[in-house]
Amino acid sequence: MQEQFSYNKSAHIAGLSSFSAIMKDFSYGKHAHEEYSIGVTCRGRQDFFSNGAFHKSNAGNIIFFNPEQVHDGHAGAGEEMAYQMLYIPEPTLMNLILALGSAKKKCARLDMSLFQDSMLQSQIFSLTSAMNSSTSLSSLEEEHLLLGIAHSIIRIGDGTLTDNHSYGRIDSLLNRAKEFIHDNLHRKCSVDEIANAANMSKYHFIRLFNEQFGMTPHQYVLGHKINRAKYELELGKNAADIAFQYGFSDLSHLNRNFKNAFGITPNQYQKQLSL
């Protein structure tokens, strides 16, 4: 079968994007998004591991990942699978949640990754369909649909929305390591450098980092480089320049890792966004 991956950006809300995929053999390795990732399994079964548990999502189920929540993903039962996702920037969704009178803190996290909710399912389909349509919504219409999604998240959370960024307290030394990584994405940093920033021995650091964030330091660094490259591509920048800027060995290195993460190459991604 021909696997398909399609991206669309909002014309009005910065950073808001939709994604649809049909896949069977393709699989995502461990990764995380900087945005809220909310979607629906449309056909087949969608299998993924996240937050210490293996999940099987059948058609109609909601999939929900908080920002920086590590997960993987592939089609289940050896059959074709289709799904749709929304990627909502954290500040955008938080502003809506605050406007609705919930979550008085700086962030809100839902503690469920897989559930059923017919209203939220309908709201996701309404917004993704509108974003995929040749007739674009007005800014007011798009914000209205997104507000409905925020309201459903509050309802589903039922007062249990937490302000935990990563399902537990992050060690202050590991936070230093994260800050060092984010500040040095343009460089080829060694694990020793990152461990030194956290004032830890190399192997002790690797073990604690993996326990805290669910991935190795290398996977974390590569994931953030790819996410940053995606953002730069959305600004219309040249893929070869981005590869150089973020320390990829060459354009093919960026192409390979970008396709592993998003199913298409940087050039294909920009073409889909008409950039």
From TrEMBL:
Keywords: DNA-binding, Transcription, Transcription regulation. It comes from the Bacteria. InterPro entries: AraC-bd, AraC_XylS_family_regulators, Homeodomain-like_sf, HTH-like, HTH_AraC. Pfam families: AraC_binding, HTH_18. SMART domains: HTH_ARAC. GO terms for molecular function: DNA-binding transcription factor activity; sequence-specific DNA binding. This is AraC family transcriptional regulator. It comes from Vibrio coralliilyticus.
